[in-house]
Structures
1.
Amino acid sequence: MYKLATFFGSFFVWISMHFLFLSCRKYIFGHSALIKCIRENEGKVLSASWHRSMLFTVYYFRKLNGALMASRSSDGELITAVLRFFGYFAPRGSSGIGKGGQEALEVFIEHVKKGNVGGLAIDGPKGPPYVSKHGIAKAAARTGAPILLHIWYAKSNIRVNSWDRTIIPKPFSE
């Protein structure tokens, strides 16, 4: 029953994100630089953003055979299923002793080494917000991939009451 609920829940999130972001007016700055960087580095690129930005990040990079890490928690199960719907590879692990973060980072690094885009929420799974962890630097050193920083914002949005203050754009916003 849990797997069925995860499947339908993740499908609902996937379809809702498509409708939401299709309704929004998007101004993208630097897309040509991203494509050029991917081309010049044979696909190996690391995308870095704050955790609060992951919603649009998942949507925007969905067609690049990317990897995003997800937690081993029960929440991570739903997130992993959503990521798979969007076409991501999702190694699972979290920071902390015995939570599989190091192992997941190794799998993530191998995926990027093969010529794929990898993305990390650089302020971790638990924060503090806007304080970068060392995983992105470690991945860059081990893969030789450049780090592309990105951020997004919606003029009209809802901020989730969580440690990262996740941004959810309101429909039809900019």
Note: DSSP finds six helices and six strands in the chain.
2.
Amino acid sequence: MLPLRDDIASSKFPAATLSIIVVNVLVFLHELKLGSHLEDLLTNFAVIPVRYTHPEIARFYTLPEQIFAVFSSMFLHGGWIHLLGNMWTLWIFGDNVEDRLGRSRYVTLYLVGGVAAALMHIFTNPNSEVPTIGASGAIAAIMGAYFRFFPSARVETLVPPFFFGPTFVLPAVLFLGGWFLLQFFNGAMSLGARGPGFSGVAWWAHVGGFAFGFLICLLARRKPVPGRIEL
């Protein structure tokens, strides 16, 4: 399902969300210029689980290099569709979460949520040698926060393969809850079904990021929005 828009207008310009999008786009444009050197970039700046779980491999990296890769991987993407899908989803859900949390806490949630997603991926794929890149784990944390703060919002949705309509308007609790269950189901089905060379979607990173965003925002002090009651 592809979200097109929601029905909650942000009260201020989403500067932090736009800044994150711009950084992701600039990094991707840099990737495009690397050509055959892109593989070297992924080796050093993507999350590769065996780098963290196999001591004989981990010893080739310093602790700062290991930590930095967790953060840098959030800003790398594997193609235009990967990038645009992630950035569009962030734009739809990020502005309202930024409104509710404020810019500094929002950026912190994005980054720490991305770390939580990466750790979940490493834990569930300890023998994977496949570089893992993309902002989807961090964006999943923002989606989890949206699920917490705006469950009654309405999300206009396009359902593939009907890319030209019709669209469906779904409650956010149904759209995001269904998305989370799909990630969890696919993640559960994938456990034990792959070897070190497996490549595909990092389902458990999505699950970890979403769960982190939702749970941490249960503790967040919410700024009230005039004229609106949220659960």
Note: Residues 2-218 form a domain with the Rhomboid-like fold fold (CATH 1.20.1540.10).
3.
Amino acid sequence: MLTLYTARNSICTQKVLIALAEKKLDYAVKVIDLFANEQYDPAYLKLNPKGVVPTLIHDGKPVIESTLICEFLEETFPRPHLLGSGAHGRAEARLWSKAVDEGIFEATREISFSAMFRERMRAMTPEERAIRFKNVGDPERSARFLSTYEHGVDSPYVFYGIAAFEKLFKAMDDALADGRPWLGGERFTLGDVNLIPFVARLAYLDLLDIWIDERPRVQHWWARAMARPSFMSAIAERLTPEDEQSMQAHGGKLRDAIAKKRAEYVAGQGAGKVLAAE
């Protein structure tokens, strides 16, 4: 029996939910209320010392870290395959997962936080906020958290996130240039699984077109992703109308500022290329 600890509208959990849906696996769900600080309950910390979601329980043993959970599911329940054919195909799929873990996760967290969760934090009592900041743990993550809380979209970490997405979508556009339907080729893989929730968050925040409006290949990939039943069951059907309206409204408040910062980054990259060529 599988048990999945999740939280409402958790992007990292959505990766696991897509993998579970693709493999048609049954599982129980236990919801952790992050804004009630339930992730710091000692009983939960025994399962996941980082105090984050998701956590998967299999045969009584916890598996943590969403990318590793997806790999665990692939190894434990190998049909249908969610990795590419052969060693090269598997490595290519893992590269996209690596991109999430090395920048896109933080980028989405900072953009989402500045758009939505910053206001929720402001509504907390000072004592509740202090618990959240105290339990962040990692100094680098704490710096990001505090900067985004204090400065919102003007935090340098939000700018880094905007740049990370620009580099990601360019890489996706390049990979899809040979006509392949998915990032790893003909087969839908964990590379697609691990990216879809992060692209979805930008879409629900009404920000996605800022990056992909002039990238039709990425648009077609996104349309195919949204059409998969696993996307519907893992993401779309789990959101309430209020969830969608809230994300769209909060993202809309930042839309102009994010578009401007993305344009500044792109212009800076172009200037760098000119200087390098001189």
Note: The first strand starts at residue 2 and ends at 6.
4.
Amino acid sequence: MTPVIHLDDITCRNEFRPGDLGYIAYLHGQIYARECGYGLGFEAYVLQGLQEFAHQYDPDRDKVWICEHDNNIVGFLLGVHRPDSLQLRYFILLPEYRGLGLGKKLMVEFLAFMKLNNYTRAYLWTTNEQHAATSLYTRHGFRLIEEKISAAFDKQLIERKYELTIDKN
């Protein structure tokens, strides 16, 4: 029998520890290969972005949410500062932690971080295959602004850019 997981049992830390970035790349590679058929091109894309982030990380302008349960990483979200906005990246939850409200909680915290740090614009890239994620983003005000056909993840798909603009008030 599978134990019942409650949202209150999941903790969230906002600082990196050695091994976190590599594990996030591993989770993306494993989960997206299994669920979507993405290949090594996707994992390379994730690794490249995480490397870029690690070299420019600014704890005053960037934010990380590392969700843990029983001392294991079960979810992750990164807010990356850009010249005129905040980019939402690497949002992932282990399958057994979906549907608990954790995604919603992370989105609320992402939006609070935006407001606290005077970001008025955020954006993210996803694909046409990420229906649950897209639904979460649009419920929180993100709008589809761009689409492009891509084979970057070793299969044909449509990459989609979503944007959110909020008032400073």
Note: The first strand starts at residue 11 and ends at 13.
